[in-house]
Amino acid sequence: MKAVRIAASVVVLLAVLAAGLWLGGHPAKLPGFLSDAFVDGNAGLNVEATEAIEENYFREVSPDVPVEEFDLWDGTLPPFGPEAAAAKMAVFAGEEPRGAAWSAAIDTFRRFDSADRYVFSVPMWNGGIPYILKQFIDVVSQPGLVFGFDPVAGYTGLLRGKRAAVIYTSAVYGPGRGPAFGSDFQAPYLEDWLRWAGVDDIRTIHFRPNLATADADEGRRQAHARARDLAKRFG
Ligand SMILES: Cc1cc2nc3c(=O)[nH]c(=O)nc-3n(C[C@H](O)[C@H](O)[C@H](O)COP(=O)(O)O)c2cc1C
């Protein structure tokens, strides 16, 4: 058994816009002056909760489970453009898909499929998921690997025996806060994709909102407690 931690948790865009040159990494690693401007004491929950899962998972379930972190920003996630899209559609036409883009997509799928347990770290970006996570979904969602399709019966998820934990954060949006605080296309989208792919066992941690709220500390404490509890039954 192997677990993959999928980290889309990067809040660098504001810094990139402001500084124009700093790319990659968690905001906690930003240069000091940017970190002060863009990262407050409430940031980083996603990383903390992910680590809490890993620590408890190791301690309570199995110290021998190999864990691989798939940092979606580390440059190993291939693009999925017209060449790859054409290869994908060739499958539907009953043809043999070809090309380097297709091979790269299949390699990424195999990396993903090699794990049985997933931890997704997902900040809300503009109401939804960060584009790099959507890119990951577009890369790995291939016919015959992640899904099957029948013109009458529709889609069938092909992943089997997987379990996912998802950590959701958002700075402003929160359930029940009203439309002025945004809408949730983050959790529904990701969980719909997981189920569509065949991952029915989904456990979630929400820390939303984590910034524009008076009681962030309590929300953080609850998220940590949930992460520890969830980790003990994650194996
Ligand atoms: C590009 C971008 C878009 C964002 N859009 C939203 C949003 O629509 N709603 C919201 O509540 N927070 C939004 N945020 C805030 C992030 O969701 C928040 O900083 C993140 O969840 C904190 O995660 P962390 O605790 O792991 O650092 C956005 C942040 C960035 C960088």
Could you describe the 3D structure shown?
- With 235 residues, the protein is an alpha/beta fold.
- The chain has a single domain, classed as Rossmann fold (3-Layer(aba) Sandwich), CATH 3.40.50.
- The chain contains 8 helices and 7 strands.
- The strands form 2 sheets. A 5-stranded parallel β-sheet has the order 2-1-3-6-7, sandwiched between helices.
- β6, α7 (187-197) and β7 form a beta-alpha-beta unit.
- The longest helix has 17 residues, at 45-61.
- 31% of the residues are buried.
Helices and strands in order:
Elements: E1 3-7, H1 13-19, H2 32-38, H3 45-61, E2 67-71, H4 82-92, H5 100-113, E3 117-123, H6 131-140, E4 147-150, E5 154-157, E6 163-169, H7 187-197, E7 201-207, H8 216-232
Parallel strand pairs: 1-2, 1-3, 3-6, 6-7
Antiparallel strand pairs: 4-5
Helix pairs in contact: 3-8, 4-5
The structure holds flavin mononucleotide.
Quick recap of the structure?
The chain is an alpha/beta fold. It has helices spanning 13-19, 32-38, 45-61, 82-92, 100-113, 131-140, 187-197, 216-232; strands at residues 3-7, 67-71, 117-123, 147-150, 154-157, 163-169, 201-207. The protein has a single domain (3-232), classed as Rossmann fold (3-Layer(aba) Sandwich).
What characteristics describe this protein?
single chain, 235 residues, alpha/beta, Rossmann fold, five-stranded parallel sheet, two-stranded antiparallel ribbon, 8 helices, binds flavin mononucleotide
